[in-house]
Amino acid sequence: MKEYLQENQPKFYNLIKNEFIQNKIPHAFLLVGNNTKVPLNYLAMSLICDETLACEKCNDCRKVLENKYGDIIRYDGKETSIKKGDIEYIQDTFKKSSLEGKAKIYIIENIESATKEAMNTLLKMLEEPTSGIYAIFTTNNISRVLPTILSRCQVIDIKPDSKEVIYKALIKSNIPEEAAKILTYLSASEEEAKNLYDERFEYMQTEVINFIEDLYTKRMNLIINVQTNLLKNYKERDDIKLFLNMLVLAMKDMFHVKHNQNLVFSAHYDFFNSLQIDENKLIKQIEIILETIYTIESNANLLMLIDSMMYRL
After folding, report:
1. Predicted TM-score (pTM) of this structure
2. pLDDT digits (tens, 9 = 90+) for 255-294
3. What Å distances lie between residue 178 and 40, 267, 294, 310, CA to CA?
4. For 308, which of 43, 183, 211, 235 is 20 to 30 Å away at the CA?
């Protein structure tokens, strides 16, 4: 982790290094971005480890990584909204004696998903910090976090991993080249990319090519094939968003192949090159798909939305 942070998140690493060396550690941190997992864990370990910063080897560091450290409470707003009762549970628990004899830490990921009542209760904790208790928050949308909470946290921007860093890490993990390229464009971090690579991803990878083949050579089969092959197996919003985002990448490749640019779906050069396309029409089709991705969260009838998209294409 240390080497990764030094190379890819130097602002974060140098900032906390100086604070820990000088023993001027804030009681609350807010990490901003969609690539916060490694910085968050490294910071939590550093607050507990006997070394100045996390050694990553001791028993305490390992327990943090394995979510087994007794004095850490974690919530993730992405999984369920953070409520007032959750914050009160943290308060009540940390009034008791420490289980581990070191720092107590509460971690709230995606804090923007907390209710207004939870935010107000949390604010009272931050206004009257207790020695030895630290907060680590993360957010993807800082505009949805109360300014009064922001003012009581050290706010640190976490930048996305570079595409090159993600791609090399995936290849090193023996993920096939084309899959690695697609994952690189869909993910903000190595961890996110690896979590995305599963049976569902591989199925979508094939269905994207089948969709384009039907769209350009067998249009009469398009809707029935999508309904029987894709939507029959994967029909949740996250599934469809993944498919559509992959489809956008593939359709951009149809444009790139005509201009001798590098492809994301690199194993399908000959297929893309064989298609007869009108570039202006292709651009409009990509815009329709992007519009569908944007609309998908607010549309109650997902299947109808996808059918509408296919008719427009």
Report:
1. 0.71
2. 899 888 999 999 999 999 999 889 999 999 999 999 999 8
3. 30, 6, 26, 26
4. 183
Q: Can you tell me the mean pLDDT for 143-156?
A: 92
Q: What number of helices (H) and strands (E) belong to the chain?
A: 16, 5
Position 106 scores a pLDDT of 95
How far apart (Å, rounded) are the C-alpha atoms in residues 100 and 220?
65
Cα Dmax for the chain:
71
Measured between alpha carbons, how far is 254 from 274 in angstroms, rounded to an integer?
Answer: 10
Angle at the Cα of 140 from the Cα atoms of 111 and 305, rounded to 5 degrees: 110
In the chain, the amino acid numbered 102 is: K
* CA–CA distance, 3 with 26 (Å, rounded to integer): 23
Rg of the chain on CA atoms, in Å: 23
Contacts of 191 (CB under 8 A, 6+ apart): 37, 38
**One-letter amino acid of 158:** I
